[in-house]
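Quick one: structure tokens for this chain, please?
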Amino acid sequence: MDSWVRFSSQSQAKERVFRAAQYACTLLGYTLQKGGSGVQLLKMVKQLETHMSLTRKLMRLGNSAEAVEAAKRAVHLSDSVLRLCLTVAHLNKAMYFACDNVLWAGKVGLLPKLDQDKWSQRSFRYYLFALMLNLTRDAYEIRLLMEREARTSHGGSNATWTSSPSPENGDLSHPHPSSSSFPVAILPLLSERFSRQFHLLGMVLRSNPPLLLDLLKNACDVFIPLDRLGIYPTGQGFVGACGLASSVLSILTIVHPWLKLKP
């Protein structure tokens, strides 16, 4: 199994290139259709997209083993949230690849009676669940880094708290805001708090390019199964743009391994 995992990892870069080409064809076909291009040209682009998809499915044969191995490694992570998210995400990827392999067999004629629509929907459900878990992992990592950055920016100093005047402690020198003025008084405080949080989020993402790229890649990818499953239809143009963008980001993490989020 280890030798197969090494072989799969070597072919990953090629699969990403074919994926970028496939979604580029999807985007190109949508653009040509909107521009009123000829039927023959549209048919050629569609056929090229189909060939790219079948080639990718062939390259992903056996990727389930790699996903299972990744799940085994994730089980030993010390952080319970990361352990749960990554383990279940990798197991869903393994099921997605297995369904994709069956679907490839049906498309090439090895399983002529296969219900391809059913297996396609099943594979996209596993893919969507894996992406949702990856996005949950990204959000968890961001929250941890934001908390760490907030502690660092405050220098670990303890704030001095004073008791608010209230009728209970006998201090009535400052009247409480009326119910009508309270929402108006609280809006600037909420605005300032949101501004600080967005600033902190920007600092965290700028200082962690691997996390930023993983977040962008997963956010782009999630629209693909949402569209294919009919949960949130966005159209071929948007799906093609998202698929192309996420493919380019994936290629960047392969060309520059330090940009890949670990573990």
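The two ends are 21 Å apart (CA to CA).
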